[in-house]
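**User:** My hope is that you can spare some time for a protein that puzzles me. As I understand it, each token names a local backbone shape. I would be glad if you read both lines and explained how they fit together. The protein I mean follows directly.
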Amino acid sequence: MRRKVSLILLAFAVFFATLSPLLRWYAFPRLVKIPANQYQDMVLEAKDATLLDYGTMKAEKVSKITIVQTLKGNVEASEQIEKTAGRDVVVWDSLSYAQGPDGKMVASIPERYIFDAHTQEPVHAKGEMVDGDPVERQGIEFKWPFLTEKRDYEYFDAQARVTAPIHYKGTQDFRGIEVYYFEQTIDWTKVPFPRTMPVEGITRESVAKTGTTRWYTTVRRFWVEPVTGAPVYGEEIHKEELRGGSLLGGREKVTAFSGHVKMREDYIEHTVALVESNRTLVLLMTSYLPWGFLALGIVLLSLSLYLEARGRPGDPAPARTTTEPDPVTA
């Protein structure tokens, strides 16, 4: 009976020991992915910012600029692209909407971001765009890969339509979570005017005829939870200028926007809570279950060997003599 139980335990030990690396190196890259129907929003603020008044064409100090960013998964578009891409694809339709303290629109920039659901690498397909302009992204945007590494990544800048390194600057603690801090600097770059201008009747084409150009620079900072690859916090030191042309009335340049853009406090708390819950799910596939199955396999193997050893017969006992003693004679 002991030998039979020992063999059963040995079979289970082999099963769990084999399952451990399969779960981590085979199942995880194929099962863990960004859901195609994900929806999220975020509110950022730039307090005491500088904003151009297009009525007077003068830069003015304002109390606050509010930027609402939304990301909406387009399931129908992702399923259509998957037919030819041959892999799981996520399509995010995003909108960055900025308004001044009076509630009036400052900017409205739509995007379509198409990427691999598992690796977050860009997938090039029809419809990929920024503000209606077709683009072909290189590098990541919005989210880092699962199990983010301590290294530089290529990050796509939607304003300049360029890809530049975003540098790993170290590991920090952010509200009890270990995060990787990344920073990217985009030097002054000529960028297109938005298709939707803040003044009715003015278009990017009419502004272009004046000879005035738009320039932009930013320092972009992200604090990324490495297991999920999700930023728990982000901010930008953002500046825009209009330069030259008849629109400025002979001036060389004027500030269009300047401010330190930060996530609003309630959205920081929401993001941290969301990342913590998702982090547990990823760790189940990458750490908790693989190591747990390996430990269980070792325990079962030890029990199997112990029962096998206990079940072996010991050395035979010495034979007892049955010979009758010789009778005693007088």
Summary: The mean pLDDT is 90. Residues 149 and 271 are 21 Å apart (CA to CA).
